[in-house]
């Protein structure tokens, strides 16, 4: 996790540019360092080439090239120990069960309720609300 002197590093993975922009704007305004990737394959590349690990991944479930579920499986297998939020449109019972079998911290359906994503990030990293 980020220390007091380091900004929390977040990677948002989504194939929708407006979602990336919205999440970046919202969480950057809270003081977080937010980077983006347009799909799971792009995100794996960013994780592998970054000089400092990400503290939190915010991952869409449905993306081209490498969907959220497969991305999370590969990320955990590669040693990622940080927090993960699945941030996706409609998630049916089957998908909820599949994600529940992975080591993730939260599922938030799009569109989120006002403030839901910021609250989830703060709760997961232990910040006072």
Corresponding CATH architecture: 3-Layer(aba) Sandwich
Straight-line N-to-C gap: 18 Å
Instruction: List the total number of helices.
Output: 5
Quote the beta fraction: 15-25%
> What sort of overall outline do the alpha carbons produce when their principal axes are compared?
globular
Q: Given this structure, which CATH class is correct?
A: Alpha Beta
The CATH topology is Rossmann fold
The beta-strand count equals 5
**Total domains:** 1
The string of secondary-structure elements, in order, is EHEHEHEHEH
Strand arrangement within the widest β-sheet reads: 2-1-3-4-5
Unreliable spans are none
| Biggest β-sheet description | 5 strands, parallel
Integer-rounded radius of gyration: 13 Å
Instruction: Find the structural class using helix and strand composition.
Output: alpha/beta
